[in-house]
Amino acid sequence: MNVHTEKYLIDGPVGKIEVALDLPDAVREQGAAPRGIALVAHPHPLFGGTMDNKVAQTLARTLVQLGYVVIRSNFRGVGQTEGVHDNGVGEQDDLLAVLDHLRGTRGYRGQPFVLAGFSFGTYVLSHVAERLEAAGTPAQRLVLVGTAASKWEVANVPADTIVIHGNLDETVPIQAVYDWAAPQELPVTVIPGAEHFFHRKLHILRRIITDSWRV
Question: Which Pfam families does the record match to this protein (predicted)?
């Protein structure tokens, strides 16, 4: 993501997990306390999705600028992450392991945390959020971009979740997102002219998240 991104391996449920860590300037240079921590999940690994996907990186960069320590990870079978694709089930366990690593080994236990995902990552993270809520440790906030509502059973999410979609999304039709969001009375922010990967619209994506942040 930038020259200060730290990439390394951690132990996961079925082997090593490759992660990338980014710190706000004030945290890295001055030792200041972060606003919190954030976990970012990437799109489908069987279709080229990695933690270096441009939307995943945009999410990470935006959250770093908002003051969060941000960690991304590659799903099973991607990059140096071991294991094989598990259709979003084992991947939930992996993301929980990454979050535990950040809160434990990296010393950020007790910090509020944010979950942000793109496409397939929204499906996995929605269920991670559900599990964390059930365990009594809910996320501070969720950010779902290109929510994969037409592909998988995305779990219900908190009312303050930021949901962003492109009206020209050819992978996940926007109507599917409306159908998922409507029973939850969940607002959906639409970027006109944006397709699934938000080509030439990433600056708008950043602005929406930044302007919506009120935690």
Answer: Hydrolase_4
